[in-house]
Amino acid sequence: MIEMMNVSCRLLCLALGGLMLLPSATAGAQSAAPSGRGLLLEEAIAMALERGPATRSATRTRDAARFRDASFNARLLPQLSVTGEAPTYSRAIVPVVQPDGSTRFVAQQQRQSSVGLQMAQRLPLTGGDLFISSGLTNVNVLGQQELRLWRSTPLQLGVRQQIFRLNTQAWDNKEQDVRADAAEQQFLEARESISQQTAALYFDLFAAQTALANALGNANVNDTLFTLNKGRYEVGRIGENDLLQSELAVLRSQNAVQSARLDEQRAAAALRLQLGYPSSAPLVLQVSNTVPEISVDTALAMREALQNAAQLRDADLQMIQQNRRVAEARRNTGFGATVSASVGFNQTAENFNEAYKSPLQSQQFAVGVEMPLVQWGARKAQIQAAVADRERVETDVRVLRERRALDARFAALELEQAGRQLITAAKADTVGAKRFEVTRNRYTIGRIDISNLYIAQVEKDQALEAYVRALRGYWDAYYRVRRLTLYDFERGARIR
C-alpha cells in the first residue's frame, strides 16, 4: 500500500476542523457511517450501488431485458390456445347450385358459431410450424326450411414448412442469445460506472470541504497578520503599501470562504442525490490514508476488455444481423416453395350426438411455389447492398475492437501513472505546508517581506489542491479500468 500518513492526516484534520465551523454540522448530529465516524469511499460506493437512483434505473433495465428473454424462450415452447366465434347472423341472397347444374339465387338467413382448441409448436431446426387442433362448428339455416348442421373435427395434425427460404427462427435464436448476454454485461458496466461516478462526487465533496477548511485557515492567518501589521505600521516598521497588501489579503480570503462554502454545499447535494442519502443527516467524509498498490498487466487488461465489453456484444449482434440480411437477400428473393399438409378426422350431422360418431378421415396436402422470372437485376442489387452493408459493419467492428483494446491499455497505464503522481503530489503538499509555516515564522520575526509570505501561501494552497486532484484522479483511474475491462485487478478475478 502507498503510505501517505503525514499528508492525509493533515488533510483530514484540516477538513474536519473546517467542518466544525459549518452551520450544517450541529453538535447533536449523528453520522450515517458505522460507529459515528465519517463515510469511507467504499461505504459511499456500496450505498450508491444499494439504493442510489442510478442503480435502480440500471436494475430495472436489466430486469426488463431478462423478462424479454424469458418471454422469447417461452414462445419456443408449445403454445395452447382457444379460438371461438360467437353466434353470427347473416341475411342475404346467395347462389344455390341445383341438381341439374343450374344456379338459383335465393334469400337465406343463417346463424353460425364455432369453437376450436389448438396446440402449436415452432420447429427451430427447420423454421416450420407443427400444430394439433380440434374444433366444432354449428350452422343454423333459418326460414321455412330450417336446417341445423354440426361439423366436428375431433383431431387434426398439420405441418407447414417453407423450402429454400430463410430459417427466421434459427436467426432469432442467435440474436436473442447475444442480446441477453449483452444486457447482463451492460448491467455490470453500469454498476462500475456508478462506482466511478460516486468516487468522483465523493472527492468533489472532499475537495470542496478541504478547500473550505483551507480558506477558513487562510482567513484566520491573514486576519492575524493584518492585526500584527497594523501594530507594525503604527510604530513605522512597515510601509502603508505592506499594510494595504495585508488588508487586501484579508478581503480576498473572506471572498474565498464564501465561494468555498457554496461549492461545499453544491458538492454535498450532488453526492446525497447519488447515494440516496437523507437530506437531514450530516454528511462527513473520512478519506482513507492509503490506496491500493496495483500493477495492471496491459495485455491482461486488453484481453479482458475484448472478452467482457458490452459494446462488443452489441457489435457481435450487428454482425449477426448483417449476416442475416445477406442470407435473407439470397434466399428470399429467388425460387421458393411452401409445403403444407394435414391429416385428421371430421364428421357432420344434423344433431350434436351424431357429430362425433364414426368420424371420416381427412387429408390435405398443398405445395405453393414462388419463382421470379424477370427482376431486372433487383435480386443481384439487393444482395450486393446487403454485402456492402456487412463489409461496412465489419470495418466498424474491427475499429471498435481496436479502440476498445487501446482504451483498456491506456487506462491501465494511466492507473500506474496516477499512483506515481499521487506520491509526488503528497510530497509536494507536505513541502508546501512546511515551507509556508517556516515563512510565516520568519515573517513574524521580521526576517522576510510580506510578498514572500503570500507567495508561500499561494504555493501551499496550490500544492494542497494538486494533492486532492491527484487523489481524485487515482480513484477515477482505478474505477475506469474496472469499468472498461470488467476485471478486478486487486482480487485477480472477473467482476460478476
Query: What is the CATH superfamily classification of the largest domain?
Result: Outer membrane efflux proteins (OEP)
Query: Spatial order of the strands in the main sheet?
Result: 2-3-4-5-7-8
Poorly predicted regions: 1-9, 11-32
Query: Could you spell the SSE succession in H and E letters?
Result: EHHHEEEEHHEHHEEHHEE
Number of domains: 2
How far is it from the N-terminal to the C-terminal residue, by CA? 25 Å
Mean pLDDT: 89
Task: Estimate the global geometry from the Cα principal axes.
Answer: elongated
Describe this structure in words.
It is found in: Cell outer membrane. Residues 1-29 form the signal peptide. InterPro entries: TolC-like. This is TolC family protein. One of its GO terms (molecular function) is efflux transmembrane transporter activity. This protein has 496 residues and is α+β, with helices and mostly antiparallel strands. The chain has 2 domains: 2-68 and 174-317 and 393-494, Outer membrane efflux proteins (OEP); 80-123 and 128-164 and 335-371, no CATH class. It contains 9 helices and 10 strands. It has helices spanning 5-19, 41-51, 53-75, 168-234, 240-275, 298-308, 310-331, 378-444, 450-485, and strands at residues 2-3, 79-97, 103-122, 129-142, 147-163, 290-291, 336-349, 360-370, 487-488, 493-494. Strands 2-3-4-5-7-8 form a 6-stranded antiparallel β-sheet, with no helix packed on it. Strands 1-6 form a two-stranded antiparallel ribbon. A two-stranded antiparallel ribbon has the order 9-10. Helix 1 (5-19) crosses helix 4 (168-234) and helix 6 crosses helix 8. The protein is elongated and about 140 Å long. It starts with a strand and ends with a strand. Mean pLDDT is 89; it is low at 1-9 and 11-32.
